[in-house]
Structure formats: C-alpha cells, structure tokens
Amino acid sequence: MPRTAQTKEGRLQIRLDATSKGVLQRAANYRHKTVSQFVLATALEEAERVVRENEVASLSSADWTIFFDALVDPPPPNAELRKAFAKYQKAKE
User: Of 1, 30, 46, 51, which has fewest CB within 10 angstroms of its CB?
Assistant: First the structure.
C-alpha cells in the first residue's frame, strides 16, 4: 500500500541555550514527540491563533443582525458616497 505522507521540503533552524532546549525536550517527552514534532505542533497552534485573531471577525448577535440587515437592505448612498464613486469613476478613465 503506498504511503500518503506529505513530502517535507521546508526547514527551520533556531539557536537556543541549553536550558531552553532542556525544557523543550522535557515537554516533548511528556507528549511522546520529538523536539521537532513538539516545536512544530506548538508553533503552528500559536500561528493559527494569531491568524484567527487578525483575519476573523466575530460579531455579537445584535451586531450580526445590524450587519446582515445592511447587506440585505442597504441604505441609499449619501452625498459623500456619491462623491467618492464619481471620483473613482473619473480615475478609471
């Protein structure tokens, strides 16, 4: 049966002191992983959290209703919006 594991081509190198390496090794041992596996898994979890914090918007129920209503039935454009659109149209020409 063929193996379906992804080929690992990227490499990341870090320098650290002996105390830090020891802590990472102990933590990896508790998770029954190598230091590389532990560091990668932990770094990815944190990276995904940071990306979510910066790229995902969460709204309260009340705010979601306001947002949805504005999408479904937007208010008519005001003078400033009409002015901005005219400026945009002129810039495209």
Answer: 1
Cα distances from 85 to residues 67, 77, 80, 82, in angstroms, run 22, 10, 9, 5
What torsion, rounded to 10 degrees, do the Cα atoms 76, 79, 81, 84 define?
150
pTM surpassing 0.90? no
Residue 2's pLDDT band, with cuts at 50, 70 and 90, is low
DSSP structural state of residue 78: -
Q: Is residue 22 pLDDT above 60, yes or no?
A: yes
Average pLDDT, rounded, for the chain: 93
Considering only CA atoms, which of 34, 13, 16, 42 is closest in space to residue 26? 34
Domain boundaries, the chain: 14-56, 59-93
